[in-house]
Design a protein that fits this description.
The complex is a heterodimer of chains A (about 250) and B (about 260).
Chain A lengths: L1 E10 L2 E11 L4 E6 L5 H8 L7 E6 L2 E2 L5 H8 L2 E4 L11 H12 L4 H14 L15 H13 L5 E5 L7 H18 L2 E6 L2 H7 L2 E6 L2 E6 L1 H5 L4 H8 L7 H5 L1
Parallel strand pairs in A: 3-8, 3-9, 6-7, 7-8
Antiparallel strand pairs in A: 1-2, 1-4, 4-5, 9-10
Chain B lengths: L1 H28 L6 H11 L4 H23 L8 H39 L2 H7 L4 H39 L4 H11 L2 H27 L4 H35 L3
Helix pairs in contact in B: 1-6, 2-6, 3-4, 3-6, 4-6, 4-7, 4-8, 4-9, 6-8, 8-9
Classes of the chains: A alpha/beta (about 250), B mainly alpha (about 260).
């Protein structure tokens, strides 16, 4: 369903991705892990063409989206929902207006139906009754929930999560993880999660891809990745800064 | 040498992006995907909220122009031609240019700051993921509101400028009102007003496109937004002044006002 072929991307003279290849099947839940600044979010943004690669292909259901212009991409992006790292809520709008945004733009549903969908999706993210609040009144976790509600309200086929638990305390992180699982199971969407939170990665991924040295370095089920003997994978999984660390060697 | 080359490259690249944004905006006008609610709000923000600044600018420009013209014309006993000079200057030059500059400072800066903040907080990317073209949703309502509001604000500025010049002439300098008014009507032709309105229309487009461009292509963080805001005002103001010169020559030929 999603396929990336030999993707290369540089910003000025700094290469971020250098020949990334991956394939994600329909309905699959994939987690991309890697160090901060390693290009995970850049890779994720290429999947929905928010960034254009220097070379390579991104195929969505067999269709290469790289050469498409912004207006052609509107049609492809209808298949996607995306939760941003900072939630990216429109701060000039209320919670309900944020969630109803896609419907208000295409005017395909009646006002009553839009209100019903907003109420339904807010209940799903456990934020009923916050319709009239402004994003500034919400906590970080609540903002992410609203961001997720906005991403799934028009029932996309693919949901992209950019660091969904970054900056949240462990309890809120846990609730966001559970929410992502609930969305995956109820809506049967393809999920792509970018994170460096290993606990989330283990829970959310049916498959984990590790991005290292500008390429997909390792791929496997959560058990395979967490039990890997590869020193680079172990270093990341264990969270140690030095490959010579005694704790890593003991393993 | 490398610095000069990079500067030229960035300048040409910026000009290209600005041109593409203008093209996309004009193309978007014909898709009729305008967010009407936003358009009404923008017209209110650009038009109604700019009233005070435009009226004060117009009034004091008319007054000082009237007084200065009187001081010079009085030497050759042409006191009653004072308001005609104020009127023609306000209609074809000062009205549109000063209104354009004031709106560039107030609205152009606000557009760049708002869109810039939206960009650095990923709200523009969020729009794109929600299958909404940023040009349709953000640029077009601002473009339409500015090209509609600026001619109206300019007309207002011209009217208040002439009124203020008249008040200075009659009540402060003691000029005979009938001759003052009659000469103003006699020497101000419709084409002067038309030229002023065309200029205001174009200046509105410049403020909108430059403000939106600087916002949508701003650098990262608070510094990027700050720089975008400053550059939006500086670039749109300079562009208005340069464009005005060429418009004066071109429209003068077309309407035979020169």
């Amino acid at each position: 369903m999603i396929e990336v072929r030999d993707l290369k991307k540089s910003f000025r003279h700094q290469t971020v991705l250098d020949g990334v290849n991956l394939r994600i099947e329909k309905g699959e839940s994939v987690v991309i892990i890697g160090r901060s600044g390693g290009g995970k979010s850049v890779l994720l943004k290429h999947l929905i063409a928010l960034l254009k690669p220097d070379s390579g292909q991104v195929l969505i259901e067999g269709e290469n989206i790289v050469p498409m212009d912004e207006r052609q991409l509107l049609r492809v992006r209808q298949k996607f929902g995306m939760l941003f790292q900072g939630a990216a809520l429109f701060d000039s709008m209320s919670v309900a207006e944020n969630i109803a945004f896609p419907f208000r733009r295409d005017k395909s549903l009646s006002e009553a139906e839009v209100r019903r969908r907003v109420t339904e999706v807010l209940a799903m993210v456990e934020l009923s009754g916050t319709e009239d609040k402004s994003p500034a009144e919400l906590s970080g976790g609540m903002r992410k929930r609203v961001g997720l509600a906005r991403a799934i309200v028009y029932q996309p086929q693919i949901v992209l999560y950019d660091e969904p638990t970054t900056g949240l305390d462990p309890v809120v992180s846990d609730s966001i993880d559970k929410l992502i699982l609930r969305v995956r199971d109820r809506l049967h969407v393809t999920s792509v999660v970018v994170t460096h939170d290993m606990r989330s990665a283990r829970r959310l991924g049916q498959r984990i891809l590790m991005l290292s040295d500008k390429k997909i370095y390792a791929t496997g089920t959560p058990d395979e990745i967490f039990n890997s003997e590869d020193p680079v994978v172990r270093q990341f999984v264990e969270g140690v800064s030095d490959l010579e660390e005694p704790a890593l060697k003991l393993k | 040498m490398t610095f000069a080359r990079r500067w030229i490259e960035e300048w040409v690249e910026g000009l290209g992006q600005l041109t593409l944004l203008a093209r996309d905006s004009i193309a978007s006008l014909f898709t009729f995907k305008v967010a009407w609610r936003d358009l009404v709000y923008q017209i209110y923000f650009v038009g109604v909220k700019s009233q005070s600044v435009v009226l004060i600018t117009g009034a004091f420009t008319g007054m000082v122009l009237g007084a200065q013209t009187y001081f010079q014309f009085h030497k050759v006993k042409m006191d009653t031609a004072m308001l005609a000079v104020v009127s023609v200057s306000m209609c074809s030059e000062l009205g549109p240019v000063l209104t354009g500059l004031m709106v560039a400072g107030r609205v152009g800066a606000a557009i760049a700051a708002e869109l810039g903040t939206m960009k650095v907080t990923e709200q523009v990317d969020a729009l794109r993921t929600l299958a909404t073209h940023p040009v349709d949703y953000l640029v077009v309502p601002r473009l339409i509101s500015l090209v509609l509001a600026l001619p109206l604000l300019t007309a207002e500025s011209i009217a208040i400028g002439i009124g203020a010049g008249y008040a200075v002439g009659v009540y402060l300098l003691g000029i005979e009102p009938t001759y003052l008014w009659d000469n103003m009507i006699k020497y101000t032709i419709t084409e002067d007003v038309v030229v002023g309105m065309i200029k205001a229309f174009i200046f509105g487009g410049i403020v909108a496109i430059v403000g939106c461009y600087k916002g949508l292509f701003c650098g990262e963080g608070a510094e990027g937004v700050g720089r975008a805001t400053t550059e939006a005002v500086v670039f749109s103001s300079i562009t208005i002044l340069i464009t005005n010169f060429f418009l004066t020559l071109t429209l003068g030929k077309i309407f035979h006002t020169t």
